[in-house]
Amino acid sequence: MPKTFGVTLLALAALAAGTPGAVADSAAAGFPSAATASDKAGRIPGRYIVTLRQTATDRREDMEEAVTEASEHASDMGAVVHHVYRHALYGYAASMTPRTAAALADEPQVQSVQQDRWVRATAQSVPTGVNRVDADLSPTAAINGVDRRVNADVAVIDTGIDASHPDLNVHRSGGVNCATPLLPPNIDLNGHGTHVAGTIGALDNRTGVVGVAPGARLWSVQVLNAAGMGTTSSTLCGIDYVTQHADQIDVANMSLGGSGTDDGNCGRTNGDAMHQAICNSVARGVTYAVAAGNAHADARNTAPAAYDEVITVSALADFDGKPGGLARPTCRADRDDTFADFSNYGADVDLIAPGVCIRSTYPNGGYAIASGTSMAAPHVAGGAALYRATHPTASPQTVKSALQNAGSLNWSWPSQDGDAVKERLLRVSSF
């Protein structure tokens, strides 16, 4: 049976509005079940994210010192600090009582105190996708069965990557495990992250599958654990790590999403710490590809898909890697070469890419078939890696524009698309 994957952030605000969170497995991470420990918006009792104020005159060194002092101050008040953020934003995540949280919120150096929330893996989804986006025609990908590797670094913010897989070039000394810190980052007890990683960069080595950017260096940034669960704070930890290594990491893939909106001000107006962190990470030069979501709804109510600073990707149902809509369905019922019947849509979607019945790498040297916008986004992350390999100084906005300009309208529409805009299909033959 085909695997079904994806990631849903049970966001930092109500399901209709708010900012995203991340979810962790209760057994592996020590967290209670989201179904019993949180409300419908996914808020986690007793867990908070504290963001510090920063003025135009505050130096980075001063802010890093302030973060240390603030987290120590919270500990003195009885809080248990889980993560400290010094790169994508300044602040920390901790367990504390509501009274302590309220007291901290009143302190002048504190910008916001928001309750932590759950995030979980959610998708439905082979190299038919690699064919459909013309990666096999890319001079940089140079797919011909000879193991020449694309010179780019891609962070997979997900359930981890199985570094022992022979078809993947995983950075052995890099990566971080924010979901289960006592375990190394280069493992994947769920499978979602390893599947995403293969679509991005599986080796062109005549075995298994090949990715869009074969052999790209993959960084395992684990924010979700064995059950595909994590927290907002663990996700922020991952973004913080990527930002810390922005001089090395070119692209980050986030095949996760959940309730939230874009306030048009990088999260400064609605107190969305994840939006602030991604904006700061993008400002450091990291291009983010994210899944649009699998609710067949407007992506404007899904985060991080709603954020303007990322490349939001919807899913195309394609069963043969070719245009024309002539193929019969394989692993799931849908129409060939049309908008996937589960995919989110809307003005926030920047590109469409194959996301149905995608074959890719899986833990323990295996391969699996899966569907979802979680499978579509890594095609775009691979495309971004190809572009950065030949344009190493390109900004995230330049990368986004290049991918959109190279895109094709050669797919059947409107089919299941829920809006009046036909987004461009990823095409990387010119990269």
UniProtKB/TrEMBL annotation:
Residues 1-24 form the signal peptide. The active site is at residues 158, 192, 374. Residues 47-120 form the Inhibitor I9 domain. InterPro entries: Peptidase_S8/S53_dom, Peptidase_S8/S53_dom_sf, Peptidase_S8_Asp-AS, Peptidase_S8_His-AS, Peptidase_S8_Ser-AS, Peptidase_S8_subtilisin-like, Peptidase_S8_subtilisin-rel, S8pro/Inhibitor_I9. Keywords: Hydrolase, Metal-binding, Protease, Serine protease, Signal. The keyword DNA damage does not apply. Pfam families: Inhibitor_I9, Peptidase_S8. The keyword Hydrolase applies. GO terms for biological process: proteolysis. GO terms for molecular function: metal ion binding; serine-type endopeptidase activity. One of its GO terms (cellular component) is extracellular space. Residues 154-406 form the Peptidase S8/S53 domain. SUPFAM superfamilies: Protease propeptides/inhibitors, Subtilisin-like. Belongs to the peptidase S8 family. This is S8 family serine peptidase. It comes from Streptomyces cupreus.
